[in-house]
Task: inverse folding
């Protein structure tokens, strides 16, 4: 398998981050235009209106567990450990990041958000275990 295939899910995550930034900008502008907030309130998130604080929180989420995803993806690439299984896991992780973000930015139902987060985290753990087995020469 082409080792660079692991970069496509990484690019997919970058696209998600850009989408969340756009949603954040739209929601913040909307809050200001609706009189719910003043621009100065965005200096610190402690005064940010509910309409945009959820998006800001989701944006922070994109730089937590996904950082481990990007690291393991690069490790797999460097050690020539990219295969169909690892790329499939990578895409599944990204799929659940999209689901998590969608739920977070729309209904924000904790049950669905938590489930999508946990499934994604489990996939990430499997990806790291697969990498560990690869460098140990087991798989």
Result:
């Amino acid at each position: 398998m082409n080792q660079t295939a692991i970069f496509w899910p990484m690019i997919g995550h970058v696209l998600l981050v850009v989408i969340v930034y756009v949603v954040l900008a739209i929601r913040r502008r909307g809050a200001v235009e609706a009189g719910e907030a003043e621009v100065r309130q965005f200096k610190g998130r402690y005064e940010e209106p509910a309409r945009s604080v959820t998006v800001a929180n989701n944006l922070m989420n994109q730089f937590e567990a996904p950082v481990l995803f990007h690291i393991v993806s690069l490790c797999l690439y460097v050690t020539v450990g990219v295969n169909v299984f690892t790329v499939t896991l990578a895409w599944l992780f990204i799929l659940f990041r999209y689901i998590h973000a969608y739920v977070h930015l729309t209904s924000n139902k904790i049950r669905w958000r938590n489930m999508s987060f946990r499934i994604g985290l489990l996939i990430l753990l499997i990806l790291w275990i697969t990498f560990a087995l690869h460098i140990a020469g087991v798989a």
In short: Residues 56 and 66 are 16 Å apart (CA to CA).
